[in-house]
Design goal:
The chain is α+β, with helices and mostly antiparallel strands. Among the domains are: 22-129, Immunoglobulins (Immunoglobulin-like); 196-308. The protein has eight helices and 15 strands. It has helices at residues 2-20, 60-63, 153-185, 196-210, 218-237, 246-254, 266-281, 288-304, and strands spanning 24-29, 33-35, 39-48, 52-54, 69-73, 77-80, 85-94, 99-103, 107-112, 115-120, 124-129, 310-312, 320-321, 327-328, 335-337. The strands form five sheets. Strands 1, 3, 5, 6 and 7 form a five-stranded antiparallel beta sheet that branches. A hairpin with a 5-residue loop joins strand 13 (320-321) and strand 14 (327-328). It is elongated. Mean pLDDT is 78; it is low at 1-21 and 328-341.
Length: 341
């Protein structure tokens, strides 16, 4: 009986040994000699018969190595054939420390028929080299001469542009100075010293001959009409009418003596100026007879407020016989003098 049990135990041990003999673990580098900072690929292989379950590979042993760094761990690739299953995983490594380093063993755990097992890869060695330094680079080198480029047109272009700019600036200054002198030497503007009403009536006559409102140019007609009236107020009464509003003009009109501008004219002057403002700025369209009425109103105002001419006659000088036989001649020519009201 004991002999039978020993035979069964020997058979089981032999079968287990033969099963484990079919498991293979390996790790290899595609290069054992790299330059500092370069990358190297490590391939982990685990082959076994079907029915064995491999656990995820633990790379913490490499992470604990201070002189080796993991760049990337490629997902596991599984290959199947009739006799075995092969697991492969690539791990990209690098190092920034020169010298001779060791990559530690990596444990691989598995389950087979409900039992846990573990195998480890072999330890790998790698040499990390630095950049070669030539001895001649450490010695002092002689100072080299400055290499001068030939002078070209592009090099001279900035100086040419600056020179032309300076010439243009000088010419511009001279032109402005001469222009100012010409203005100073220009003849003074001729001032029409005729009475204000004569100038205004001439302008009214010219305006009527142009027949602006009859040809549809209503805005131009009233603009010209109010300009003549404003100019007349400036010349005749010294009111700054050309640069003032209708309200400001009426203030200046109302401070004039009543015997010069009667109060009865106040509403007519204001109506004439306000009508022109409405036509020019509000685009109002008054009746056609309104234009002729405003023209005659302005003309009548100029005539009734014009500067009067006063003729002063001096005593007639006649030839008188005085005692002693001397004759005295007296001038009888009247003298006309114009006075402002």
């Amino acid at each position: 009986m004991m002999l039978k049990q020993w035979c069964i135990l020997v058979v089981l041990l032999a079968y287990g040994a033969s099963g484990l003999a079919q498991i293979k673990v390996a790790a290899k580098l595609d290069s054992n000699n790299i330059l500092i900072g370069d990358q190297v690929r490590m391939k982990i292989q685990f082959s076994h018969e079907p029915g064995l379950e491999v656990q995820p590979i633990d790379l913490s042993a490499i992470e604990k190595e201070p002189k080796i760094e993991i760049i990337k761990a490629v997902p596991v690739d599984t290959l199947y054939n009739q006799e075995e299953v092969v697991f492969e995983q690539d791990v990209i490594l690098t190092s920034f420390d020169s010298g001779y380093h060791f990559i530690p063993s990596i444990p691989i755990q598995y389950l087979y028929q409900g039992e846990k097992g573990e195998l480890q890869t072999q330890e790998l060695a790698i040499t990390v080299r630095t950049f070669p330094i030539t001895t001649d680079s450490l010695s002092l080198q002689p100072i080299k001469d400055i290499i001068e480029e030939p002078f070209s047109f592009q090099d001279a272009l900035p100086y040419i542009a600056a020179g032309l700019g300076g010439i243009l600036l000088v010419l511009a200054i001279i032109w402005f100075i001469r222009r100012g002198k010409k203005k100073e030497e220009a003849e003074p503007e001729l001032i029409d010293d005729r009475p204000a009403h004569i100038i205004a009536l001439e302008q009214m006559k010219a305006l009527k001959e142009r027949q602006l409102w009859q040809s549809g140019q209503i805005k131009e007609f009233h603009t010209e009409l109010t300009y003549i009236l404003r100019s007349y107020l400036e010349r005749r009464f010294k009111i700054r009418a050309l640069e003032s509003t209708t309200f400001e003009i009426m203030l200046g009109v109302k401070i004039q003596p009543k015997y010069v501008i009667s109060e009865s004219w106040y509403p007519d002057i204001e109506r004439l100026l306000q009508t022109a403002d409405l036509i020019k700025f509000a685009k109002a369209e008054p009746p056609l007879e309104w234009h002729e009425e405003m023209f005659e109103l302005g003309k009548r105002f100029i005539i009734e407020t014009k500067q009067e001419e006063v003729i002063i006659e001096e005593p007639v000088v006649e030839e008188v016989q005085e005692e002693g036989g001397e004759n005295v001649e007296e001038d009888t020519t009247p003298i006309e003098e114009s006075k402002k009201n």
